[in-house]
Amino acid sequence: MNLASPLPMFVDTAKSRNTVLTISELTRRIRGSVEQEFFNVWVLGELSNVKRPSSGHVYLTLKDAHAQLQAVIFKSVAHGLKFEIQDGLQVLAFGSVTVYEARGQYQLIVERMEPKGIGALQLAFLQLKERLEKEGLFDPAHKKPLPALPRKIAVVTSLTGAAIRDIVNVINRRFARVEILIYPVKVQGEGAALEIAQAISDLNTISNIDVMIVGRGGGSLEDLWAFNEEVVARSIFASRIPVVSAVGHEIDVTISDLVADKRALTPTEAGELVVPRYDQIMDACEKIKTRLVQALYNKILLMRSRLLRIEHSFSLKRPFDKVYRLQQDVDEIMQRLVTTGKHMVQLERERLAGIANRLDSISPLRVLSRGYSITTLVIDDKLIKSTEGLAAGNRLKTRFSHGSVVSSVVEVLE
Amino acid sequence: MAKIKFEDAVKGLEDIVERLEKGDLPLDETLSKYEQGIKLYKQCIALLEDAEKKIQILVKDENGVFRTRDYELEFTQGNNSK
């Protein structure tokens, strides 16, 4: 099929009336005319039906209120897009319309795409920020404290930029005795993000690094872009060494700033954050040592005054006083015990006497003393109140006030 | 001297001082804590003094081996331009 010679758009009508075209032929002609007519056009529309099969190409529909257009972004172009292609985004797309003959469908082959109303980089920043935030990469819980006295500080930056000079200046100003290890990287342009990410993970394999500064001097959004790349964010997040980010000059926040354990507004500030102030630390150490000595001194004073008190106390002068006083206490208690005991016995006695009197008053012995007697059967000692059941020959026992007799029944009188 | 982190030494020293300032420990315990404190203090000072200034550049060769070379301080004198 010869595609090199696109057909004119309006085919001779006489020709088309007299010839029967194959579908392929017709489609080829349509394709030719469409490609010629709609070569390198900009379109404005909303993204929908975004699909990403494993081929790496992106298929989507561009639409407005009244129409829609199929579009494809081939892998190589898709790879270079800074922002994420999402349904609902308003975009400007540049490319050429062609016909996909196998399906008889026309589509736009996209070569460039920009979000509408916002720069691609800004949108990319916002999209990545939202995604990483959801994942928890900016969570304060993940932020590591900076060491109070770092001895080895790594700096990931360009050797030729302002950042390293600023940091070295801080060290010189403070007469700091620290080791600085510079890991030179590209801080802008193609491949910078990968270099920075690699540097951060490389430094994590080196021992004794207490803290690292990652950054560069100020610049445009494009200049700072490497610090907004996901690969850098991930390596900062994965770093076991605390990371201080120092990008630019206070204006923009980068993704790196958000992920880092500490954000410095400038490289100079980063230096001031991590380089120890020996004089201040020394002062603090001296202060706490003074408190230590004072605490011991206070304890000794306290002990001494307690000793003095004991020395002058009444009991130390007359050591037996306490014993005597205790003995006195014991005597007192004993005395009370005895008194109580006596009283109790007296009470018991009176109680017993009362009971005895009451017993006495109901005792049958009292009746006997008035001349009555009690008669019982000898055989079972049963009390006899009448003649019932008695017969001659029964042996009876009769109790008097004093003594008793046994007698036999001679006759029962009814 | 055992390798101790500066933060840990300071923290240990602060804890001891706070405990002693309560003043309710027996004298012998107070003394032994005091001695511990002084030891930590000396470690802090030693850590403060035991460091040197060194600025180096890390270079990774093609085999992935790291080497270092000294950083030249040629433009650190009051140069604050970008």
TrEMBL record, chain B:
Q: Does the keyword Cytoplasm apply?
A: yes
This enzyme's EC code(s): 3.1.11.6
Q: Which InterPro entries match?
A: Exonuc_VII_S, Exonuc_VII_ssu_sf
Any one GO biological process: DNA catabolic process
Main EC class of this protein? hydrolase
In terms of Pfam families, this protein maps to: Exonuc_VII_S (PF02609)
Molecular-function annotations in GO = exodeoxyribonuclease VII activity
Checking Gene3D superfamilies in the record gives: Exonuclease VII, small subunit (1.10.287.1040)
Q: Which reaction does it catalyse?
A: Exonucleolytic cleavage in either 5'- to 3'- or 3'- to 5'-direction to yield nucleoside 5'-phosphates
Protein's cellular compartments: Cytoplasm
Give the GO cellular component terms, alphabetically.
cytosol; exodeoxyribonuclease VII complex
Recite the UniProt keywords alphabetically.
Answer: Cytoplasm, Exonuclease, Hydrolase, Nuclease
Any idea what job this protein has? Bidirectionally degrades single-stranded DNA into large acid-insoluble oligonucleotides, which are then degraded further into small acid-soluble oligonucleotides.
The record's annotation in HAMAP family points to:
Exonuc_7_S
Write out the similarity annotation: Belongs to the XseB family.
Task: State whether it acts alone or in a complex, and with which partners, per the record.
Answer: Heterooligomer composed of large and small subunits.
Q: What is this protein called?
A: Exodeoxyribonuclease 7 small subunit
The upper taxonomy is: Bacteria, Pseudomonadati, Planctomycetota, Candidatus Brocadiia, Candidatus Brocadiales
